[in-house]
Amino acid sequence: MNHSTIKRRDFLKTAAASTAGIALSPAAAGRAATPNAVKVEEPFHGAVLNRRQGKAVPGGLEISVSGVAPAGEAVTVNGAAANCQGDKFTGSVVLREHETDITAQTAGGTKHAVRVVWDRYSQPRYRFSVDDNSFFLRDIAGKKYASLFDCWYLDIFRKLNKKYGAKFVLNIYYTTEDGFTLPRFPDRYKGEWEDNADWLALAFHAYANMPNRPYQDAPPEKLIADLDKVAEQIVRFAGEKTYSPPTVIHWGMTRTTAFKPLYERGVRVLSGYFVHRNKTGWDINYRIDDKRSEYLSKHDALKDFASGIVFSKVDIVCNNTPIERVAPTLEPLTKDPNTAEIMDLFTHEQYFWPFYRRYIPDHAQRLDTAIRWLPERGYKPVLFHKGFLGGRM
User: What pTM was estimated for this model as a whole?
Assistant: First the structure.
């Protein structure tokens, strides 16, 4: 995403039947939509649940289930009798698999099901993504440094890695506005890229910085063609170890029909802002439906079962967060079990460069402040493309 103004930075429906809270089959979905049908309201369909959102039991995680049903009708949850009061019911389920279907059924035979994901090996973790990268590649290619890290920009990340163990994925363009293209970047640094691939990855972001929102209405074929061009070049000059499937598409907006093709290219996580604008509705949300966008605005993650992609909520954008606001931004998230487990950190390359019109002199210090704050509270660095949201499967 390239957002050099507040309007531009407010970033990142499937047509499939995995929308929040609906049934897993068209027939059940129709029943759940009627006034007198049973409906599971919590947990949310696609919810990614961890130890903070339930009670650990031998071999599983016990979670609460609640919803609505016709008053006076008995309800079961996965076959066990639920507690019914008026038109409300509550029950519990023990998650033992990575994915679990939860079905509520009335004595009259109506039923409603949701599916949830158990992040079994979850631990407090953070990832750091940097968008809109192109200037540093042009700089290295032009100045022919002896080492990648003779480029002061990359050296910032190396120092943060050495100080805190931080890991980064840099999302890059194929071309810059002055005509530089990735094929002009030499492969002489390939060994050095691969030597640092455990903490520094490269991923596709877009073909170019402009136009804005390039994939919001573009056919999936255009997005995939651009992704393949960038991926080919990353592998050529930096090696397969350095390549990461993208986790942020420029501006965080695509057609929902692009999800499956993206998954087929290795995409497992897409980060967005999931922000609501009074005039235009939900935005920077990959055009998923309103219910799921609202859910993601208040939760770490949500899975789209139709494609297999997990959506992640960006927690802080460092180029928009002054140093004194870093802790007040992150601290409340650590207190909410729905947002405390995974921290999705984010910034943009251009704000590091003095020639950029919105240059931020203390940009590197903002990153240092955010990254230092998290390990002090037990958060470990991860890369989203490794494991499940960076953690063990």
Answer: 0.91
